[in-house]
Amino acid sequence: MAIGKLLPATATHIEAFESARDRSIVNGDVLDCVLAHTARGNVDTIWTENTQHFGEYAFLSAENPLEWKWKEK
């Protein structure tokens, strides 16, 4: 499995900013909105500490890897 970069297109920025406006998202949370819309159609899950910022996006799930229970050998 390869991990690559996802870069938002101009249309993605427009869609994200319109979504942020419609959801009354402001300040630094707008970046999370842009991230969500960039991920749309490219990934199913993102890893972040701020899982609550992504709860409104039905097309994307968010997991906090810091909360995972690691198996000890």
- What is the H-and-E element order? HHEE
| Major β-sheet strand ordering | 1-2
Q: Structural class of the secondary structure composition?
A: alpha+beta
Radius of gyration: 14 Å
Strand content: 5-15%
Distinct helical segment count: 2
Question: Ends: how far apart?
Answer: 25 Å
**CA-based shape:** globular
What are the low-pLDDT stretches, counting only 5+ consecutive residues below 50? none
Helix content: 25-40%
Mean of pLDDT = 88
Give the number of DSSP strands: 2
The largest pleated sheet is described as: 2 strands, parallel
Structure description:
The protein is an alpha+beta fold and 73 residues long. It has a domain at 14-63. The protein is built from 2 helices and 2 strands, in the order ααββ. A two-stranded parallel sheet has the order 1-2. The chain is globular. It starts with 9 loop residues before the first helix and ends in a 10-residue tail after the last strand.
